[in-house]
Design goal:
This protein has about 50 residues and is an all-alpha fold. It is built from three helices and no strands. It has a domain of about 25 residues. Helix 1 crosses helix 2. The radius of gyration is 15 Å and the shape is flat. The protein starts with a helix and ends with a helix. The model has no long low-confidence stretch (mean pLDDT about 95).
Length: about 50
């Protein structure tokens, strides 16, 4: 449980918020969305 508390505290800190915002900006880019879709397709095809 201590790990979750530390993670939550970090994400609420200014540095954590910067990382969250950067992640959201990166995920909004079409090329990154395409990469994630390809990765998901590969992972799902391995399961079958």
């Amino acid at each position: 449980m201590a790990l979750m508390q530390r993670l939550t505290a970090f994400l609420r800190s200014p540095r954590g918020q910067q990382l969250v915002d950067r992640g959201r900006r990166e995920l909004a880019k079409p090329e990154n969305q395409a990469r994630l879709k390809q990765l998901a397709t590969r992972l799902l095809s391995r399961r079958r």
